[in-house]
Specification:
7-stranded mixed β-sheet, 9 strands, alpha/beta, 233 residues, two-stranded antiparallel sheet, Glycerol-3-phosphate (1)-acyltransferase, 2 domains, single chain, globular
Amino acid sequence: MPGDMAAPAAGKRFRKRLRLELTLLAVAAVYRMLHATYRTRMPDPSYAQRRAAGENVRCIYAIWHSTLWHGLHAMRHQQIRGLVSSHRDGELAARVAKRFGYGLVRGSSSRGGARAMLELARVARETTDDFTITMDGPRGPAREVKEGILFAASRTGLPIVPVGLWVDRAWRTRSWDAHVIGKPLCRVAVVLGEEIRVPPGATREELLGTWAPAVVRGMEAAEARARAVVEAA
């Protein structure tokens, strides 16, 4: 009897893996075709590039979930570790991130969050990598800062750097985040905003009452600058 039950379960796992692989191949093909047409500008050096030039800098990049399509590509191979949901929904994002040279910290603000923050703090102590966190991920509400990135910044001492992105012509998906996917030949700008340093030991009330609005303002300023870069091109 146990053997009879194991076979359907194994078949189900195989079909699930196969669907994931086929989805990944399809997404990757569309991704490559579209990104080959994009005219992307990133006027600011990444923190990895600044370290290579001799600066002693590190950060946590802050990004909205809706801009991952462009943000992942623009910041690829820059010594960044991404916080990716431990839920099965995050598996596709994790596979894509690895293809672009990102390290991973598994977990999210809604599932496995405490473990993820402990792991992020450990990696921050033991490496010189930067981090990136989708502030409203993995399931929203859209453009609402959750406490995970604020807690991470407070406990690691790393500054939050808003990643502002603007696309002049784009589709919006019907997902919860209204994801931005640039149309062929669109112009894209990705800029890095001013550092935001959350004090160590900040309480939850301080994180959400003071620092979450500060990060939103920083994101809005970075997005405004990105729009100006696109319009000036």
